Amino acid sequence: MRNITLLGATGSIGTQTLDVIRRQNEEFKLFAVSANKNWDKLIEIIEEFSPKFAVLMEENAYKKVSNYCRMYNKNTEVLLGMNGLIDISTLEDVDIVVTAVVGMIGIKPTLEAINHGKDIALANKETLVVAGEIIMEAAKKNNVRILPVDSEHGAIFQCLQGNNIKDVDKIILTASGGPFRGRKFNDIANIPVEEALNHPKWNMGSKISIDSATLMNKGLEVIEAHWLFNQCYEDIQVVVHPQSIIHSAVQYKDGSIIAQMASADMRLPIQYALNFPYRKQCVINKIDLTEIGKLTFEKPDMENFPCLGIAIAAGKQGGLMPGILNSANETAVSLYLNNKINFGQISYIVKECLDKFFSSAEVNLDNILDMQSKVTDYIIKKYK
């Protein structure tokens, strides 16, 4: 049995990871778990899985879960904050850490887990977007596997199995196009939050749903693919595929394209990452190609969805620029979700911050976090 630490258990990816663990309860043990402030849902997880450790990021939620565990004599030790995240990511008994938290909060515990020799099932985009150079160097040094959980990167990972990375001509990263595909920028600039959250194919958290609507999500995935698969940006192609049946593909130098196809269900890439290199009993609805009818492909519309081009440009610049991109986007999306700015301002704010905070400073954790603070403070003060 493999022991798992699950960071971000109450979110969309975390919930689906729990379902995979539930279905393979003779092979996996949920050893430690974390949540931000969703204390009541975390209590349900403690009741079902009896983890040895639980972490809350918000103090009031921590107190509620701590009191509950004391009152009902639960054998779960409850911890608080970033130190708690790091503690449960480096436990000697843990075999693999699933990083399903959203945002830059995932960087420190992921890096510490790698330095303690833990395999990483990575669902936290920001970890590689912001600190890809650091993370991949640490993984190589500690002989740690970074197993992608994102649907697209999990698909690419599967398409590479049994082949030599040197034979890759390009990576084909598919995108659904989001809820506003085919519409003009001016038509969606003032779109209500609830419409932007309504993704046509995937059930995701609010931040990722907005990123999908702006196509920033795909830009972040390009940067992530660059680090995961050691490919030049020029060799990563984004293709809009509205049916979301092909989750991504790899074209080899002989012209062959190998694609991974399945229903739009995150439990498959989660299951594959947790069991790699083995495949287990199906946990998703299988597709029938005769019922699909047709698959279509389009070029991405970077004119009306500028975040994709902005993100790729920041990735090519490298250094701290992807971190600036990510911090600006995270803050802008939060403002939009709280009705402080409109949808169209997200890309404007991100571009503004990339210009204002341009930096060629060394990529290290201190510089990354310092820049994040500067960018966030600037946006909040200007757009509050």
Features:
384 residues; alpha/beta; Rossmann fold; 2 domains; seven-stranded parallel sheet; four-stranded mixed sheet; NAD(P)-bd_dom_sf; oxidoreductase
Question: How are the SSEs placed, and which strands pair?
Answer:
Elements: E1 2-7, H1 12-23, E2 28-35, H2 39-49, E3 53-56, H3 59-71, E4 77-80, H4 81-89, E5 96-99, H5 107-115, E6 119-122, H6 125-141, E7 146-148, H7 151-160, E8 168-175, H8 185-188, H9 193-196, H10 206-214, H11 216-229, E9 236-240, E10 246-252, E11 257-261, H12 267-275, H13 289-292, H14 307-317, H15 321-337, H16 345-356, H17 365-383
Parallel strand pairs: 1-2, 1-5, 2-3, 3-4, 5-6, 6-7, 8-9
Antiparallel strand pairs: 8-10, 10-11
Helix pairs in contact: 2-3, 4-5, 5-6, 6-11, 6-15, 10-15, 11-14, 15-16, 15-17
**Beginning-to-end CA distance, first to last residue:** 49 Å
- Compute the number of helices: 17
> What ranges have pLDDT less than 50 throughout 5 or more consecutive residues?
none
Residue share in helix: 40-55%
Structural class estimated from helices and strands: alpha/beta
3D shape: globular
Largest sheet: 7 strands, parallel
Strand count: 11
Tell me the strand percentage band.
15-25%
**Tally of individual domains:** 2
Q: What is the chain-wise order of helices and strands? A: EHEHEHEHEHEHEHEHHHHEEEHHHHHH
Q: What is the C-alpha radius of gyration, as a whole number of Å?
A: 20 Å
